[in-house]
Amino acid sequence: MPPKAISDVERQALRAYYFSQKPQPKQKDIIAWFEQQYGRKLGQATTVSLTRLRITINILIMRLPPAL
Hints:
- It is a single chain.
- The protein is elongated and about 45 Å long.
- Helices cover about 65% and strands about 0% of the residues.
- The protein starts with 7 loop residues before the first helix and ends in a 5-residue tail after the last helix.
- It contains 3 helices and no strands.
- The relative contact order is 0.14.
- It has one domain.
- By secondary structure, the protein is mostly helical.
- This is ARS-binding protein 1 N-terminal domain-containing protein.
- Pfam families: HTH_ABP1_N.
């Protein structure tokens, strides 16, 4: 049986956790945190999408003009 999709609330909490950690956590850390918080496993596809989001944000930040 495929894993149950995460809710919007869980997704928001996951993103908040991910971006509040310095350095950003690895996939295994994200999966462990989610399981501890919500009592179920998080699929690897969800952690991969977070990694892609981080990469996209970093690319966009690099393209910003320098602050005055």
